[in-house]
């Protein structure tokens, strides 16, 4: 899939700003806050050494801070523009730092982390097996890797069979997600990478009345589709208009199935 996140370090600031705003829309939804409270609340708590892979502008980092209260947190991301936003956001927090790197090469020392978290990152990775190996290297024996992401192949905005707006969601998946099936493969991949059998939890996420996140996701998706030549700008605008019209009329429905796989490195 031509996921633009595969070239995230080369994206202009306008794209990074749209991503940052969309991440804020998602994390501020009370349903997503409940989901984060559940999966992060199961991880080792206060004082832990935490590495966040793909921290972006720090939206998910806020949730990690709230629910884990780490002794130390290092955020890693390949997009300098997003890292700059995260650094500014947490400038007053001495226990936090942010570094340029990626899921396969973090540049961090081995066996220093109690917890590694990746919040909606693995679906964008070209080599998730190498990312699992790097996460295992970062963890102390007994440490936990938590991978949270969408089972994006099930995304729907359709109100009936053949709903043309579903094509906008399919286009969004094609241009913003590298592997919409990754969460189905990860439990097996985690075991193959040397983790104990993961504990998996699923979370339905439905937006209707105030669908700020799915609306912004689709707007970014069809904009990327037009930029990639998948469709004309006129069609992308039509998709954005139809989405906005459904929201305005109170007829919008969007659903994403999220999941968390949390696996322990053997002690
Ligand atoms: C959907 S955003 C999620 C950001 C953040 N975790 C959040 O939920 O607010 C995906 C993030 O993964 C980062 N990313 C993309 N490719 C990556 C890679 N190879 N390794 C680590 N992070 C990557 C992007 O820069 C972006 O910040």
From TrEMBL:
Please name one Pfam family that this protein belongs to: Methyltransf_11
> Which EC number(s) does UniProt give?
2.1.1.-
Q: Which UniProt keywords apply?
A: Methyltransferase, Transferase
Q: Show which residues constitute the signal peptide.
A: none
Gene Ontology biological process terms from the UniProt entry = methylation
- Spell out the InterPro entries in the cross-references: Methyltransf_11, Methyltransf_Superfamily, SAM-dependent_MTases_sf
Q: What class of enzyme is it?
A: transferase
A Gene Ontology MF term for this entry?
S-adenosylmethionine-dependent methyltransferase activity
Q: Which residues form the Methyltransferase type domain?
A: 51-146
The UniProt record lists the keyword Methyltransferase: yes
The protein's name: Menaquinone biosynthesis methyltransferase UbiE
Q: Give the organism the record lists.
A: Mameliella alba
């Amino acid at each position: 899939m031509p996921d633009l996140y595969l070239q995230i370090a080369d994206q202009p600031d306008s794209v990074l700003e749209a991503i940052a705003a969309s991440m804020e829309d998602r994390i501020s939804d009370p349903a997503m806050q409940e989901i984060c409270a559940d999966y992060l609340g199961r991880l080792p708590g206060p004082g832990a050494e935490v590495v966040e892979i793909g921290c972006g502008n720090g939206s998910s980092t806020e949730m990690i801070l709230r629910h884990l209260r780490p002794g130390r947190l290092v955020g890693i991301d390949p997009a300098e523009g997003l890292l700059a936003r995260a650094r500014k956001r947490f400038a007053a927090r001495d226990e936090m730092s942010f570094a340029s790197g990626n899921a396969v090469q973090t540049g961090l020392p081995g066996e220093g982390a109690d917890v590694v978290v990746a919040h909606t990152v693995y679906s964008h990775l070209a080599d998730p097996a190498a990312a699992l190996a790097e996460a295992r290297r970062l963890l102390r024996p007994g440490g936990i890797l938590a991978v949270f992401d969408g089972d994006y192949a099930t995304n729907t905005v359709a109100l009936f069979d053949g709903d043309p707006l579903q094509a906008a969601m399919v286009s969004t998946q094609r241009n913003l997600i590298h592997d919409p099936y990754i969460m189905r493969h990860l439990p097996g991949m985690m075991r193959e990478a040397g983790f104990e059998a993961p504990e998996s939890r699923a979370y339905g996420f439905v937006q209707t009345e105030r669908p700020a996140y799915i609306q912004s996701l689709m707007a970014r998706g069809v904009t990327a589709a037009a930029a990639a030549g998948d469709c004309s700008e006129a069609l992308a605008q039509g998709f954005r208009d139809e989405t906005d019209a459904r929201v305005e009329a109170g007829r919008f429905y969007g659903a994403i199935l999220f999941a968390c796989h949390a696996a322990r490195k053997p002690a």
